[in-house]
Specification:
444 residues, alpha/beta, Rossmann fold, Alpha-Beta Plaits, 2 domains, 8-stranded mixed β-sheet, 14 helices, 37% helix, 25% strand, elongated
Length: 444
């Protein structure tokens, strides 16, 4: 989906915005503390969420003054919520939107709350995701973040801005994913400078819009992850309790940012709330042989070798894995730090490839283990999902150094191939019902 960046004038400031989609409802997305209207499309998960929202609305996105592509501001003269409301109105006027649903994400929630209460004639509906009325703890707001924890978080962000810092709070379930770490660092750098980013976060220390909640008289949806580690779900419950007739939906998960993993559940709830219809995007599901590999004891090797030598060894390992994948018609899905996720169109080729990878790694002085499972997978852009991937990961975790471990389903599919198997017993897989019979494969 192509989007053109334009500018709206809000006082002396130019506000960058984009409008995509041609749905009957205008949906203004008020972002969290930073954003970049163009950079967001480079993140496949963000692009997936934006495309989904634009499928049933005209999606209007903008960078708040001081962030992204909008005019910068002095860190000593940060905009007030009132001035930021002016930015929302300026963007709506620029696109010819008289009335819109307003989606406030995280730190964008208080601004959206104040806008809906102040300009009900321009607010079709209010949607709040992972948001709050007050950020920090006080005597009359015990669910807020403790000051000590807040200051520790700011110090960590300041020290590591532009890298994978903060993922423990924003996306704990994916914090070790190398691709996400790279995307997150880029997101921080493109969203604001270190000084501006920290100053914008510190604005939350003074934010308190609790008094505005009873003045909201537009349809309101409150979405919140039940185990959100950054903004706990009690914040969402407080919002829903104090906004008349608000609907609260608690979504499963610990990740705070809505676009991680594509945000399909978030988009579905918003679509149903605004249109009365919930449609799910078509997904391509195929039966695939899934292989996961990883280097055994990689943490200890890094400590012993040092970062430079380890990086050189890891590059040689990756080259060897890719050679074997090409030889056995495997498809690399992604790297997992010190391993690979790949798929095959046949179990025999997958086992032979896994064994070849183990052997090639051994020649480099590295112990690799591999897990294989076959099942239905969902094709997601350049990634794959589904229970088969989770099972393959659990199988790999059970494998020993230099071992190719497979599930019973894989063993049954290669009957008569001459591949030998040793019974490794039945195992419970975390998060997967039932017990799985596992076998060590030997393709010699």
């Amino acid at each position: 989906m192509q989007a053109e960046t334009k500018y709206a004038k809000s006082g002396h400031y130019s506000i960058a915005y984009q409008a995509v989609g041609d749905g009957p409802i205008d949906l203004v997305l008020v972002p969290g503390f930073i954003s970049n209207v163009e950079g967001g499309w480079n993140n496949p998960w963000q692009a997936q969420l934006f495309t989904r929202l634009a499928s049933f609305s005209r999606l209007i996105r903008f960078d708040k003054r001081g962030t992204g592509l909008s005019d910068s501001v002095s860190v000593k003269e940060l905009p007030t919520l009132e001035e930021r409301m002016d930015d929302v109105r300026a963007v709506m006027d620029a696109v010819g939107s008289q009335k819109a649903a307003v989606l406030g994400v995280s730190e964008g929630g208080p601004l959206s709350i104040l806008f809906a209460a102040t300009y009900p004639e321009r607010t079709h509906a209010l949607i709040l995701y992972g948001s709050f009325a007050r950020w920090l703890r006080s005597d009359d707001y015990p669910i807020g973040m403790p000051w000590k924890e807040w200051h520790a978080m700011l110090a960590e962000l300041e020290a590591g801005w532009g890298g994978p810092v903060g993922l423990d709070w924003y996306a704990p379930s994916l914090k070790d994913d190398p691709k996400l770490q790279q995307m997150w660092g880029g997101f921080l750098r493109s969203g604001a400078s270190p000084a501006a980013g920290l100053a914008l976060l510190r604005m939350n220390e003074e934010t308190d819009v609790r008094s505005a909640l009873p003045a909201i008289h537009v349809p309101t949806l409150v979405l919140h992850r039940s185990s959100d580690r950054l903004i706990i779900v009690e914040h969402g419950r407080h919002l829903a309790e104090h906004i008349a007739d608000a609907k609260l939906v608690e979504l499963p998960g610990v990740d705070h940012i809505p676009w991680f993993r594509g945000g399909e559940d978030v988009a579905a709830e918003i679509q149903e709330f605004l249109t009365g219809v919930r449609s799910m995007p078509e997904s391509d599901r195929v039966l695939a042989m899934v292989m996961l590999t990883d280097i055994v004891g990689s943490t200890e090797r890094i400590a012993a070798m040092g970062d430079g030598k380890w990086k050189d060894l890891l590059n040689r390992h990756n080259d060897a894995v890719r050679r074997e994948l090409a030889r056995f018609r495997g498809r690399e899905v992604k790297t997992t730090g010190d391993g690979f996720l790949a798929t095959f169109d046949g179990p025999g080729r997958a086992i032979h490839c896994a064994q070849a990878i183990v052997d090639a790694a051994c020649k480099l002085g590295v112990d690799v283990r591999a897990g294989l499972h076959t099942g239905e997978c969902e094709l997601l852009e350049q990634d794959i999902g589904g229970i088969a991937v989770h099972v393959a990961a659990r199988v790999a975790a059970k494998a020993g150094p230099g071992e190719v471990l497979v599930s019973r389903m894989v063993k049954d599919l290669v009957a008569g191939s001459g591949i030998r198997f040793k019974d490794r017993g039945r195992h419970v897989m975390k998060g997967v019902p039932g017990k799985f019979a596992l076998y060590a494969a030997s393709a010699d």
